[in-house]
Design brief:
12 helices
Length: about 230
């Protein structure tokens, strides 16, 4: 059991380091390590028919590092607290606007495509970080597994398309970049914001947190408006 866990951790970390090396050489957003490493691991599991539960013997140890990784974001935020105070109205306004646009645009698309109620409820918190989104979805009557997929799609889409959109609209301000990536793509957007500097990643972590808090309050109201009965 211990040997299996160690091998899984070594292989997973090795794949990520390899993809990081490729990304440093070929700087394309679509090659971001979080996406390519995940894809590679999934392909290996499918090819060798390794059950998910078997992989998680070692994967759970990697998963345990998510908590400390999120907490570590407090350090750059503390260093940039003066930026936060100076731009607080813009940060809150931009984040809340982005959250509501993300919610309603997703619902509108789902309604146009004829998605059933279960899918709409599962899609609603897609712009919120996974742990919070799953809890919101479950409380509203959605399916947590579907919500996880929608959150991942939103995260990867924003992290990949975000740099092109920022370039298209000539957005170069670190605060604006951080708010945009954190609001649209939560944790993956924050990871992408690291490439733009400490100020951007700090603002992105704030945006991600505000989205989680505001989304928890706004989601039930949106559902009540959609399904009053």
């Amino acid at each position: 059991m211990i040997l299996t866990a160690a091998m899984i951790v070594i292989v997973t970390v090795g794949i990520y380091l390899l993809m990081s090396l490729i990304y440093r050489r070929v700087r394309l957003p679509v090659l971001m390590p979080a996406l390519t490493a995940t894809f590679t691991v999934v392909v290996i599991l499918l090819y060798f028919r390794i059950p998910y539960n078997t992989y998680m013997i070692g994967g759970k140890w990697i998963n345990q590092l998510l908590g400390p990784a999120v907490v570590s974001l407090a350090y750059p935020l503390y260093r940039q607290r003066h930026v936060l105070r100076r731009n607080l109205p813009a940060i809150l306004g931009g984040t809340l606007t982005g959250l509501l646009v993300g919610m309603f645009s997703g619902i509108l698309l789902a309604v146009v495509l004829g998605f059933p109620k279960l899918y709409i409820l599962s899609l609603l918190p897609k712009s919120i970080t996974t742990p919070v989104a799953i809890q919101i979805s479950s409380n509203l009557g959605g399916e947590s597994s579907l919500t996880s997929v929608f959150v991942m799609i939103a995260g990867f889409t924003g992290a990949i398309a975000g740099p092109y959109i920022l370039k298209l609209f000539r957005i170069k301000d670190a605060v604006g970049i951080g708010i945009g990536l954190g609001t649209a793509s939560h944790a993956l957007g924050t990871a992408k914001a690291l490439e733009y500097g400490e100020e951007s990643v700090s603002m992105s972590s704030v945006a991600m947190t505000v989205c989680a808090i505001a989304g928890s309050c706004a989601a039930p109201l949106v559902v009540w408006l959609l399904y009053p009965h």
